[in-house]
Structures
1.
Amino acid sequence: MATRIVTLPGDGIGPEIMSAALQVLRAGGEFEFDEHAFGGASIDAHGTALTDEVLAACRGADAVLLAAVGGPKWDTTDSDAPRPEQALLGLRQGLGLYANLRPVKPLPALYDASPLRRERIEGTDLLVVRELTGGIYFGEKTRTADGASDVCSYSVAEVERIARVAFGAADRRSASSRVSSVDKANVLETSRLWRETVTRVHAREFPHVELEHVLVDNAAMQLVSSPRHFDVLLTENMFGDILSDEAAMLTGSIGMLPSASLGGGSPGLFEPVHGSAPDIAGEGIANPLAMFLSAAMMLRHGLLLDAEAAAVESAVKRALDGGLRTPDLGGAASTAQATEAVLDHL
């Protein structure tokens, strides 16, 4: 039976980069693709960002590949109106995807594309492990004419399981591994629980892995001033959302970063970190490389096809070494030309 992958092109440049990714995947394996509307496209078609049918299809797949969601068309301050981002939150919650992995490793060919000096980013190789189904994004929300509130809450069990993911990832990365746990324990009660729980998991289960606690504002500063310091960054939901986008610029463009969202026994969700870029949608100039690298993460983490994942990653690297540059990287290559360059090396 062919491996079944649910594809969610989404909005903006999503359909363009999804089409490019499917060309790459078809070149290297036998897969069955099942496409569904998601996000803004689903709101237009069904009045909701995520239908029960799409969630059921994702639960029954071997993996889920997502391109991008959102756009000004669906922006609203009406708390009762559907928004594309609700699809992401609903899918993460519906599949139990509590761990988001975002590798950040600038490629030598793109050192000069980063807004930071080459000597500052050279040798950076870090992994952001972000808790994905708790915290302020999922807490109780209230809104009145005079104010609003969003509750941030975490349970010990939620912190323990994401801490184990981070320590396990650090353990596999190198012998001299380090987890930098990010919090705001000098102010927030949830962060004090986070710090105490991470410390306990470390002492009991991973004492051989180095652990440090870093306040979130200090972590933001160090990501720019000394990114090589970090190995694995462990964060709660909102802090990870912000810091991973900051870290993306170390690579020269947010168009270069893939991600994987994993849970216990559910199909994984794999998507580029960037948004839907509605300003360039339909122009054929979107950078598909983060989409290709997300497909590689799907091959490795979702389908256990390490050799195939490495082949895609190597093809992207060699295409960049050969001079491939999309507009966001300071070049002029179109989406189609970037896809062809990677296929030539696959």
2.
Amino acid sequence: MHVTGIVVEYNPMHNGHLYHVEQSRKTTGADAVVAVMSGHFLQRGEPALVNKWARAKMALHQGVDLVLELPAAYATQSATLFAFGSVAVLDSLGIVDSLCFGSESGDIDSLQALSTIIVEEPPLLQSFIQEELQKGQSYPRATGVALTRYLELDPQFDSTAIGQPNNMLGLEYLTALRKLNSSIQPHTIQRIVAGYNEENITHAKIASATAIRKATMQSGLDATETLLPEYSYKLLQEEFREGRGPVNWECFKQPLFTLLHRATPAELAGYVGVDEGLESRLLEASLRTETVHDLISAVKTKRYTWTKIQRALTAILLGLTREAQAGLHLEQGPDYIRVLGFTDQGRKLLRAASEKARRPILTKLPREKSPMLELDIRASRIYAGGYSRTQPGAALWDISKPVLMV
């Protein structure tokens, strides 16, 4: 059986995502699709609109056969760690033979060529990186600028490609495959109509998840009905009706501001992502703002981007310190494969994986939990505190909830 993997967040699952699943099957000739999905907190450092179980259910009803969770330790990080963790989950399952991701380019050969340059770092590129570092740039920023300079000297490359978010994430997937020496074969499909960060709805059927969330918060869920598969729309209606959404940063305003107000600068600086003086700006802004949105707006500068601040706030909320993260050994990949749900076809995949997987496959929580798994559980308990109505047992959701079978 040919199995293709995809990396998703489904925040929420929309028509563009449905197209991705369908085209992934078609492009790779896959018999089954495995999705690695972020849990309750996402790559740009924000809480998901609805919980991971609802989003997994959307996936299973709309073409995905098996949904695995990307641990929070990777899901809330930079593109490099996010991609590495995702690819490592698929690779360690032992049955995935292809990976299909969306990109602005749609050309896997050109992305592979770019990936080779990034991994091998020719001498000229190294010198450009050093020049940018000497200007005071952060390493990721210096690398990006240096790579653009390098590609501008070679007419065979489109230097604008590396400034496009899906292309950049795709390059991280390709780099992760190399690091893992994985046999998984990469494929890409071109992203259609809406850009990744596009905030406005410009098409009747396709919009970015960002635009859909914005419209939902401003005008209500009905404003997005034509942009969502019918099942996604009805499931969101149900989740909102039961008080389990829409979840956003303001749902965590009280605990977040409490943590900021009681912390010293040194304590804040110990959290992942709180660096370069960000702790002082957070403390100062927390004393004169009343919403998380206003807090981020007050802290934001060219150096401190919106995403960087959100990721730092997520680390503070989840209690993820640099010391704790060092103990997770992220460079080794996730130490388990956690199943969120599966279809009948997915059940067959799990049987096959049980003989080939290089990490324990979890369909229920073990008695002895690794620090990485403890972080996932803590993230779920904190997320449940953001529901608009008290949910009986919500704080124990990860313990009491069985995997989904569709």
3.
Amino acid sequence: MNTTIRPMPAAQSVQIPWQDVQLNGDLSVPRDARGIVLFAHGSGSSRHSPRNRYVAQVLLEAGFGALLMDLLTSEEEEIDNVTRQLRFDIDLLAQRLLRATDWLKEQATGRSLPLGYFGASTGAAAALIAAAERPRAIGAVVSRGGRPDLAGRALLSVHAPTLLIVGGHDFSVLPLNEQALEMIAATESRMEIVPNATHLFEEAGALEQAARLASDWFLRFLPRRHIKEGEDRL
């Protein structure tokens, strides 16, 4: 990936309690933010993922806040690096993403702003399950190189506008996204194929195109779904 990663401005280190663990995150919210996008990483990635941090930077420049968080603790990541099992525990990832959503709505910075999800790899499935659980709280969902098929029948309850971004040469994941798209209940749902890109969007210009698509999607849909305080249980 030959994309320049600039430092995220005004990033605040946060800890999100979930049961008996603390989930680490980096929260950046620009002045007069349009909304906040929560990032759901997957497949052995973390909040330090250079690809997701690049996308977060593009969203910040468009006026959105970003919460990049670890869905697994450092100890769990060490286990997962060997077993590769926790990254496919989609229910666990979704429950932790929901907790992060709840936590964010409890903070002054996130209480009145519309929220969106950006999911990568298995994190995309977690984001879709969480969006199905919070139909009025989540304004839009974007998946990059995701496995939305792993969300299963929860796709039938996803009503937030959903964009699936897939590499044109991601031959194993592309048909899985096509199948998932047919199940998503949202009136506004679409798949965008980035030509010649493989799963990690490492080709020249591929990640930039994916980030622009994500930014345009959130610009289009998040402002339309402002949440009134007390509208949904969070």
4.
Amino acid sequence: MSSAREYSPTGMAARTAATLFVFVIIFTGLLSGAYLWTKPAIEASAAEEKMKLVDEVLPRSEYDNALLEDTLTLPATPELGLSESSTLYRARKAGQPVAVVFEAVAPDGYAGKVKLVVAVRTDGQVAGVRVTQHKETPGLGDYVEVKKDKNKARPWITQFQGMSLAQVAAHDWKVKKDGGRIDYYAGATVTPRAVTKAVLKAVKWAEANRNQLFAPPGAPQ
């Protein structure tokens, strides 16, 4: 007489389900553990990438606060071409506001949107601008990006450094083809025109909101 335990189909199904449930719990636990273990490294890497981008538009020598921790959440901001919320970073030195770093979008690039990061100092002066994403034609309009610009000594995008509304009238924030002061490469004016317009809007927005953007730490938003 066999002593092997026999299971009904219902019992077998229940046993299989229980086994799968245990495996799911174990697997989920392992994934959660791996995530918690790697989370600090992932966050550190993300912070490092953000700082690399910030460094391109604002030298670290100009501020001494933990810039990535001194932030302001912006709602969708049409003036900056932003349809979703974004994060603005505030730079300070000895507790005093120095500059803000934020995103902007030029919606009318030749091949679509051109995403930017802009740094504006407390006096309204542009500290730096960089293109972070675009779909412009390789070898033509993509010179708005530093890495794609053949002029390594003075990339096109660096023309905005030092510009402010106090020093340059709004009507001069145009490419030279349109009567402004911004250089451009022949045969590719649509993208630089769009970027220039977006930078001007960013500077105007920063000026219009300076009391909030450059508020001391802990001030009501």
